[in-house]
Amino acid sequence: xxxxxxxxxxxDEGKGxxxxxxxxxxxxxxxxxxxxxxxHTIINEFGKFALxxxxxxxxxxxxxxxxxxxxxxxxxxxxxxxKSLEERGxxxxxxxxxxxxxxxxxxxxxxxxxxxxxxxxxxxxxKSGIAPFYSDKYSKIGIQVWELYExxxxxxxxxxxxxxxxVQLKYLYNKPQIDYxxxxxxxxxxxxxxxxxxxxxxxxxxxxxxxxxxxLLEGQLGALRDTDHGIxxxxxxxxxxxxxxxxxxxxxxxxxxxxxVITKAYSTAVGEGPFVSEIFGDEANELRNRGGDSGxxxxxxxxxxxxxxxxxxxxxxxCEVQGATEVCMTCLDVLSYMDKLYICTGYELDGKVxxxxxxxxxxxxxKPVYTELEGWKCDIRGIKNYDDLPEKAKKYVEFIENEIGVxxxxxxxxxxxxxxxxx
Length: 423
What we know:
Blueprint (H helix, E strand, L loop, with lengths): L1 E6 L7 H9 L4 E4 L8 E5 L2 E5 L12 E4 L4 E2 L1 H12 L6 E5 L3 E2 L2 H14 L11 H9 L12 H21 L8 H15 L3 E2 L1 H10 L4 E8 L20 H7 L8 E7 L2 E3 L11 H10 L15 E3 L1 E2 H11 L3 E5 L9 E10 L2 E3 L5 H6 L1 E8 L16 H14 L3 E5 L7 E3 L1
Helix pairs in contact: 3-4, 5-6
């Protein structure tokens, strides 16, 4: 069986916790896209962790973890992440696709320089080098892992790459040029470090599918940050959709049967772009400080997340483009302090109410149309069965389920792995 876990919204929906939970019954966990630009916060019996490149199955010693071909592989960052877990006594099996592309030092520099150049028009990048990385990948000048072991080819390719790049650094950004030989030496060193982990992961996965193994595909960010179907241009540079799971892992699309889509019980976003149900001021600060386990702050950047009321229009759209077969709602317990709960059920634009998700320009002008529900005003942490939730809490979940059109099969009422209510 293959399950994909992806986000319905802007990212930060709590996918790491759910992946960590399902990884306990998975033979293989695969990261299939993205890079170190977003993180998954996980709290389990080992402690609290923020993962960025490592698959969330690393806490299950029987699980094989794979960094798939669709990932932006920052080897230096990966080594630091592996070391940080090993220092805390976590051991795991990790394999790396020989077709994964390697994130290079200039990708990060270009990300930083371009945000500086754009000034007020910046995209809100995490400055992890993701956009320049994917630009090189699709320009066919990037470096795949297998190329780290073809030394003559690698040196020649880097020389050609940096001849062009150094012109850009000097004349567009007025920044120091890069010695391609220094990059070459670093890549040779990194190649040796990861050599024992490199494999044809796609062939391994196709074999595992035939053998009936349980495979979990783990996505990064959410549907609204997808490069094609998100709030372009305020998106990431890879596909965040379940459909890309087949491509980013190297398996057949028809093998994917279960698509678990994660959404929070309220809305959060990091970075620029339209956010129709966003709230501000003291109201936002209270929700932000109460959110998650230690507040709504980015796992990668530490940036305060933008927060808002639940957006049923955006979430329904996210579920549709992800092809959701079920939904998991996280962080329901966070809302226990509210007297009134508001759900955005439509967008008002030029006197007309829209129930469908709009393009970026229209989203900036749209106003939220809210449905108001009564809050339950009591702590729900510690409740183990969905039926034992307060009636008003269940009404909130079931109202949203009706709005988004997909069954909410799981509800999270706390940050830990075992704080999941199954319906």
